[in-house]
Amino acid sequence: MLFGLRFGQLGRPWWRSVQIVRAVDWLWGACSVDRVRVGVRALLVAALVAVGVWSGASPAGAALSAFAGHVVSGSVVVHAGDDQVGVDDLSGRLELAWVSEAAHTVSGSVTLDPIVMPTFTGPFDLQLYATATIVEAAATTGMLNESSGVVGLATSARMTVAVYHQLGAGPDPASDPRLTGPGCGVDVAFGWTGTTDGVAVAVSDSQFTIPAFPSGDSGCGAATDELNHRVAGDDNSVQLTFDGDSTEPVTNGFLRVTTSPAVPAGIVVDGIVRDSWALTWPELPVGAHRVCFTRVPGYSTPPCQNVTVTAGVTSAVVGAYSAKGYLRVLTSPAVASTVSVDGVDRNDWGLWTEFAPGVHNVCFGAVQGFDVPACREVTVEAGATATTTGTFVSNPAAVGPVEPYGLLRATTAAATDAMISVDGLERNTWGLDWLKVPVGTYTVCFGGAPNLSSPPTCSAVDVTEGNATVIQGTYLPRGFLRVVTAPGVAATITVNGQVANAYGVWTDKAPGTYTVCFGDVPGYVTPPCQNGVAVTANNTTPVTGTYTPGG
After folding, report:
1. For a Cys-Cys bond, which of 69, 140, 382, 495 suits 323, CB 3.0-4.6 Å?
2. Is it true that the peptide bond before 333 is cis, omega within 30 degrees of 0?
3. 367 in any annotated domain
4. What is the pLDDT of residues 442-500, one digit of tens each?
5. Kind and range of the H or E run holding 17
6. How far apart are CA 435 and CA 339, in angstroms?
């Protein structure tokens, strides 16, 4: 009668409530407990095993590697005394799981849909069905043993069960009368071990038991004793076997690099020139990368930038180039005067090189037998050449430089528009024309030049009093490698194992042979690598990767 009164509060006649109570008793005690129990376990098992993990070494500081996957089939066997029942309708999918390599920890999360068991006929021809739902699931955590590939995992969840009386043509938990209270549930804790092949976790003979359902006002009503006898007994456990799949680790992101304005600069990532002009979303490993830009004559080179590539996400970098102007300095008559700009000795006899726009202070060094012209300010505008002439007037009494000095002569071979620096300060392009410098040791560097291989290292030179020290920077011609995909697809292209660009590549290369490979593109058959691609000086070598539908 107590249960009749409770159900009677739903607005039904007392005699109808008695029928419902009997139906509930029959449901738990006669046959449907196993159906509910199996459905609940199917849901829990889907939550437990749908976990992909990563193992194996990766570069230090590697970011988290993400995985996605789902359970595709499974079976659950429930032992209840001498009875044994099974079900093959696992429901659940993995949204995200990952592993932190540094800590060797595994974690993850899942989303689960409630299981609605098939409708069956109860006493008095009532159409009944049951649902099993995870209302709260803790994060799945564990540890990974990289040497053995063994993974230990654990989690907990709150499980609820409900029995409904189907009134319409099909189950409708939103409107059908619920015959069990909302508190009919239990907290489940479980742990298990598995192994990983680097992509997915395989679990076998994983067992757990469900603790006793609470009595009293738990909401399970008359079913409590039967639940505890048939579901939470000491001998009751779940054994799971399953087949699952998961995607490969998402360990790459995308890098988009542009130049502004668009200029034929080499795009350097982690010390390697990848392509010219821009990078069009090639895939790169997640983590920190350094992007630099090569010199373009007539422009100020932007500074290097640090960028963090995130799995599956595009990271964008813009190299802002600003146009320079040119400053041309003449001496009249032509004399061996040291021309300095903004306090830096640049060259002797004259100067013609690029400068940032703005006002620059130009001065002239002493020449024996001539009066030195006054310093002057010269305005350089972007894209234009500013010219100034230092007029030297003859004066037999005028003296030249008083400190001991030597001469520094630098040339480029073949002659090219490369910036030459001495002790880290830019001096002149193309060459140094016997620049007067105090006696000592200097470091001379030759800057980059378009489509030419620059001297690999700087050189230390000694300058002695009254003598000329000559140094030459040898520049070698390069060829061009042009790679296209047909049709144009977002394939990441590698050259000699290094990522170059996506969609295509067109950049200068030192003469030699190269191996060009093409990345996978969904829906296409990946073309094979092309080995022995020969690049020769001053010529363009074309390579085509042909993608055919399929794959």
Report:
1. 382
2. yes
3. no
4. 999 999 999 999 998 899 999 999 999 999 999 999 999 999 999 999 999 999 999 99
5. helix 14-26
6. 9
Same domain for 299 and 237? no
Contact 496, 515 (CB under 8 A): yes
- Are residues 413 and 275 part of one domain? no
Number of domains in the chain: 4
Summarize pLDDT for 80-89 with one digit per residue, the tens. 333 433 333 4
* 122 plus 224 within the same structural domain: yes
Q: How far apart are CA 268 and CA 113, in angstroms?
A: 48
Is pTM beyond 0.70 here? no
Predicted pLDDT at 77: 40
Average pLDDT taken over every residue of the chain: 74
Residues 101 and 204 in one domain: yes
Buried b (16+ CB within 10 A) or exposed e, 148-182: ebebebbbebebbbbbbbbeeeebeeeebeebbee
| Rounded Cα distance, 32 and 293, in Å | 71
Residue 158: its pLDDT value, please?
A: 75
Report pLDDT for 75. 38
Give the residue numbers spanning the domain of 502: 479-549
What span, in angstroms and rounded, lies between the C-alpha atoms of 336 and 368?
A: 10
Are 110 and 137 in contact, with CB atoms under 8 Å apart? yes
Whether residue 438 is found in the same domain as residue 499: no
Distant-in-sequence, close-in-space partners of 456: CB < 8 Å, separation ≥ 6: none
Q: What number of other Cβ atoms are within 10 A of residue 403's Cβ?
A: 8
